[in-house]
Write a structure and sequence with these properties.
Blueprint (H helix, E strand, L loop, with lengths): L1 H12 L2 H12 L5 E7 L5 E7 L24 H9 L6 H7 L3 E3 L6 H10 L12 E3 L1 H5 L6 H17 L2 H17 L5
Parallel strand pairs: 3-4
Antiparallel strand pairs: 1-2
Helix pairs in contact: 1-4
Length: 187
């Protein structure tokens, strides 16, 4: 399922990838792609691939922080890419590599996972499945940027883990299409 969806997704995205890459390169200095360490299934660390949406070295001073509304670290093109979710397209390669699934709990950064594991009971349970490009929490809850948001999203992730099925995955993919088409939730 994941491999088929990733290949089909890459076939549809193929004409867009070079255009997006060129736009990113021309819009601000820095690399086209952004690699970020994330926590996957079994709390295994992997490198997530995205189109760069922030200015180069955006977290040099602040360190790891959640994206906020009107985040000054995000480039003007980055705002568009995030709103349309086009910055996520390179994650299809993470799916092909086996680090991610098409649907599952969103992978989080190790800095946040360590803190959330300490503060939220059962937070580590979300790592029993491969993380996904999209998931139940992503289509049911707005973008999270706090401990409280992480707790709410965990409830959705645990629901997904408990009710994990092809039917639910298919429903999540349909909901994701709506989210992308109507531009809900991106930061």
């Amino acid at each position: 399922f994941d491999i088929i969806f990733a290949i089909v997704g890459l076939c549809f995205a193929a004409p867009l990838l070079p255009v997006i890459a060129l736009c990113v390169k021309l819009s601000s200095p820095g690399p086209v792609f952004f690699r970020q360490t994330r926590v996957g299934m079994g709390e295994k660390i992997f490198s997530l691939l995205k189109f760069r949406t922030m200015f180069e070295d955006a977290e040099r001073i602040t360190g790891a922080v959640w994206a906020q509304q009107n985040d000054p670290r995000i480039t003007p093109l980055g705002r568009f890419l995030r709103k349309t979710r086009l910055d996520e397209l390179p994650q299809l390669f993470n799916v092909l590599k086996g680090d991610m699934s098409f649907v599952g709990p969103r992978p989080e950064r190790p800095e946040f996972v360590n803190m959330l594991n300490e503060k939220i009971n059962f937070y580590s349970k979300r790592h029993t499945l491969k993380p996904g490009i999209t998931g139940w929490a992503q289509v049911r809850y707005p973008y999270g940027s706090s401990l409280e948001d992480s707790l709410e999203k965990l409830k959705y992730d645990l629901y997904y883990i408990k009710n994990y099925s092809f039917h639910l995955d298919f429903f999540i993919i349909l909901e994701t299409i709506k989210v992308v088409l109507f531009g809900r939730g991106g930061r």
